[in-house]
Amino acid sequence: MTIPLPGAQVRGSKTGKPIMALLDLLGRTWALGIIWNLRSGPATFRELQQRCEKISPTLLNTRLKELKTLQLIENQESGYQLSSQGFDLFEIISPLGTWSSQWAQALMENKKS
Amino acid sequence: MTIPLPGAQVRGSKTGKPIMALLDLLGRTWALGIIWNLRSGPATFRELQQRCEKISPTLLNTRLKELKTLQLIENQESGYQLSSQGFDLFEIISPLGTWSSQWAQALMENKKS
DNA sequence: AAACATGCTACATTATTTGTAGCAAACTTA
DNA sequence: TAAGTTTGCTACAAATAATGTAGCATGTTT
């Protein structure tokens, strides 16, 4: 799968509008999960593998390369970490944490009835 | 692929923490794209297919079922549309539109140097 | 120098996505 | 009212992506 560079053809868009490139990226297995799991600080490859519970090393490496190319993460001495852009992105999606709990609760209540 | 119900085992989590169920869902091909494309109002199946430019009907239908089960969209007379929960979700992620443009620009500038 | 840890790669198996064709049901039009 | 059209979707084979396990090279600890 080619890396969804804004400007290039990506899933969902011939023009490569930045939002489409981003949605393509985030829509790939584990991309969001990796970003989410890096929110709590840098992690080495194996650490990150554990945070992600059951990601395969093959895919982890593939995603890390993509995220690095797209400058959302960087690889420093302390391990992989969100770049400043990656962190901005995380801040946008971070309300999903709280939201998802409410959503889960609503789902349960609707199941009852 | 089983629908990532909060509480069940999902990709990335044995416990099915709601956020993990959500990230699993959103990390599926086209899930984010469909939500994004419904932001501008209801659409019939074929309309939605066009908004998504090149989604296959098979997958569109699969995702629609998932999103419906998880109460993020609903199917009314006017077609498929975001449910009130789906809309809340969209509101959280909607800043990605603007953010992605800045990101794309930053990427371009870094390419130069 | 032997044992261990780390960051990956190889690769076969399995799962997901695509793309095309087309069908049944509901609506139009003649 | 009978012949199109359109719509919502299913079938299915081919292509692509993800998983899981093994393991290797390099660096570090004892």
UniProtKB/TrEMBL annotation, chains A, B:
InterPro entries: HTH_HxlR (IPR002577), WH-like_DNA-bd_sf (IPR036388), WH_DNA-bd_sf (IPR036390)
Domain HTH hxlR-type as annotated: residue spans: 17-108
Keywords, alphabetical: DNA-binding, Transcription, Transcription regulation
GO molecular function, a single term: DNA binding
PROSITE patterns to which the protein is assigned, alphabetical: HTH_HXLR
The protein, known as: Transcriptional regulator, HxlR family
